[in-house]
What we know:
This protein is an alpha/beta fold. Helix content is 36%, strand content 16%. The chain is elongated.
Amino acid sequence: MLESTQQEFPVLDHDLPASLKQNAFTWMVGGAAGYGINASGEMFSRCFTRGGLNVFAYLEYPSLIRGGHNSYHIRVSGEPIHSHLERVDLLICLNKETFELHKHQIPSGGGVIYDTEEFQIDPNTLPAGVRLYGLPLLKIVKEHEGIDVMKNTVALGASLALLKYPFTYLEELITKQFQKKGEKVIGLNVTLAKTGYDLIQTQYDITQFPYHIVPSGEKARVLLSGNAAFSYGAIKAGCKFYSAYPMTPTSAILSIMAAHEKEMGIVVKQPEDELAGVLYATGAGYAGVRAMIGTSGGG
């Protein structure tokens, strides 16, 4: 007896009914380390926080000094949210590995943006109802004399177009992000993003993509990383001594605390290793100072 060749897909019990697909959405960008995954994910998140919406973001990267697969997963909602969801309504594949690793998370009605110049996708490998939005991302970048990493900028523009979200939010963020690099760099990135935004609308019927995000009309919200929230909470709570040996994922805490060291009267020490950091903080605590240590080991 022959086995069926039809692939089985998990039923996502958190699939949303059509009535809830406005301002309720999950998105992921993935690719190799060095392709601006974190930067593009943060910029995309800020498009929505600036529109008064709630965003929960999750950055995943391997325990490697260099290389490996990175992804940035965000959830957008008009209501307060406190966690991410496994579901990925729109997956941005900057390489084939991203598709292979995350295709099982895409529900029926979801979509995939990918580079047609790099790889092709067999629709039979996806659940019924998933839409494919292939674009020549790298070719677009080369036509505008950009560098390979700028593929993510084209993909950001294409993502916003599918969501029917105003392009002006992304344009303003690009202008702010690259203001120190000059008008030429700003202009190139805005052009690439707008090319992706326009091309997805001319090549595909975006009305068939069921998700739609609308600015809430409320004031802009703040996008904070967990490390930033932890740091500011510690400062507010009266932390006056911080020691840590820098290593991902806690390095940002050291940078934030050091940036406010003089302003807030905090002593910040970067010791020679993790054990020295523990001893520093222990000593400060015995001396009556509210002390904190943040460290992690490489294994």
